[in-house]
Amino acid sequence: MNKISYTLSAVALALVLSGCSQPSAQEGQQQPPPLTIDVAQVKMAPVQSWHTFTTRLQAPERVVLKPRVSGQVEQMTFKEGERIEKGQTLFRLDPRPFEVQVETLNAQLVSADAALMQAKSEARRAKQLVAEKAMSTELAEQRAATLRQAQANRDAIAAQLKKARLDLEFSQVEAPISGVISRAIVTKGNYVSAGETTLATIVSDQQIYAYFDVDERTWSDKFAGVDATDAVTVQLQRINGGASVPGVVDFIDNEINPNTGTLGVRAVFDAQQHGLKPGAFARISLGSADAATMPLVPERAIGTDLKNRFVLTVDANNTLQYRLVELGERYGAFRAIKSGLEAGDKVAANGPARVGPGMPITPNMVTLNLDDTRLVIAQRDTQLSAAN
């Protein structure tokens, strides 16, 4: 009886064990495949670090137009906002008062010439009479003094006539520079005062300047060997974005401002070609070194582990591996890697958000497109039209 009981117990135990082992085998057969993630091969490309400064653009030449003589505006001979050329007549003042003054002084000059001729004749006659002892020396000296006085009077009138002719010429206000003129501040019929009344403003439009200040530490660390004659290339970015505008550094101040600890730098750009206007806000990017080839990865591929930065690389077995990296500059959606990656390495393109080290994956290879990403400002020996 006991023998039969032991036999039944053994059979029951075998059934329980077989029941437990069967689900485990089924679970092993239904294990999900490795997760599919985007994988990108590291992109090797030349990159250049740069520094960005804010500024407002300025015209190389700006003139506040004022009359040189006083008078009444008779005519305005330009269209507001148009481009004008140097020497072009812009305003005409009533010329009649100046013409009268010229005519008056012309008559006075004729009279002064006649008086001078008479004084010369009398002085000459006096010398002869003194030689013949027919006139006293004192009287001859008086006639010589009269000659000098007549000469001085004639010269004074000639100088006044010259000034009157200049005033007549200045009654036509001409453009001192070429550029774009503003609206007319004073219009026809108004009286203007010499050197006081503002008629309009003119700004040059061929080139445009961007002044910016570089702090002393940055200049000493990154640009100590730069000279204005190097024509270092810069890039200008407008407030509304769009394509960058190339230019060159054409001026570096001769001393660091002790009050601000900055050095003044100026870049010049082609204003007409790129439609740049004085007073516009802009960002200036100045390259600090020549281009160097570095690995580039998407910014989102980089993870943070306490103080460390890392990426997940994919090995030959399609398993993710933890890799410490040292970051370089950021270029749009990409980041340069100073150390930790080499050409041919593959990384998880979207970073460690869904995956981690040691996980097997199914790679979905994607290509990094850098076509629209500016990695290098320009080589320093690039010749630009703005430099001319």
Automatic annotation (TrEMBL):
Subcellular localization, as worded in the UniProt entry: Cell inner membrane
Keyword Signal applies: yes
InterPro entries the UniProt entry points to: Beta-barrel_RND_2, MdtA-like_BSH, MdtA-like_C, MdtA-like_HH, RND_pump_MFP
SUPFAM superfamilies registered for this protein in UniProt: HlyD-like secretion proteins (SSF111369)
Topological category with respect to the lipid bilayer: Lipid-anchor
Occurrences of domain Multidrug resistance protein MdtA-like C-terminal permuted SH3 (ranges): 296-349
Pfam families given in the database record: Beta-barrel_RND_2 (PF25954), BSH_RND (PF25917), HH_MFP_RND (PF25876), RND-MFP_C (PF25967)
Entry keyword set: Signal
Domain spans labelled CusB-like beta-barrel: 225-289
Family (UniProt): Belongs to the membrane fusion protein (MFP) (TC 8.A.1) family.
Name under which the protein is recorded: Efflux RND transporter periplasmic adaptor subunit
Species of the source: Pseudoalteromonas viridis
